[in-house]
């Protein structure tokens, strides 16, 4: 699966999250061969867990099937919204090779917008970052969700 195809799946997962009242963010983890290792959507509201971000849930699930313990060497994290500091840190600590995201997050993004955790030279691992994949679709889903929440 290509990152663009994975982003399509992440958008489907994000739409599911909106259905149960969570911010519509979806994530897919691809192995080095492009096969899907894991996928998840935001579940903070669903399970009452502030750490239940799509990226964290997908990385946890991928680590269970990857075969190298917690190290996701060779993997790509594809997510509809630029990771926050927690999720960017999880990507670095899981040793993914690449982070691909759709919409930028100027208020909380930690892959280049507000902070740049994933490329911080002080850290011992720095994944490649690919920004803006299907950015308009990802952003439109988020904007529609927040407009509906605000009654606009």
From TrEMBL:
Gene3D superfamilies: Cytidine Deaminase, domain 2 (3.40.140.10). It comes from the Bacteria. The active site is at residue 55. One of its GO terms (molecular function) is tRNA-specific adenosine-34 deaminase activity. It catalyses: adenosine(34) in tRNA + H2O + H(+) = inosine(34) in tRNA + NH4(+). Its cofactor is Zn(2+). PROSITE patterns: CYT_DCMP_DEAMINASES_2. Its EC number is 3.5.4.33. Zn(2+) binds at residues 53, 84, 87. It is an enzyme of class 3 (hydrolase). Keywords: Hydrolase, Metal-binding, tRNA processing, Zinc. Homodimer. Catalyzes the deamination of adenosine to inosine at the wobble position 34 of tRNA(Arg2). This is tRNA-specific adenosine deaminase.
